[in-house]
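Input.
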Amino acid sequence: MTYKMYIMNFQSTHFGAGTLDSSKMTFAADRLYSALVLEAKKMGKMEEFVSIAGQDEFVLTDAFPYLS
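Output.
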């Protein structure tokens, strides 16, 4: 199986820890999946995304942002 890593470059973001005044340095894969679903829906690509996400090869892991 081939793995791909995508480095995400955020201009600004907030990974909440329950309230707006607290945050974390990581975010879970389920939150990433939810964000991808919302973006697919906005783009009218929900069926295509669900099809891709349903494949065994589609795997998301927790994200660990870093400062370069």
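The chain has a mean pLDDT of 80.
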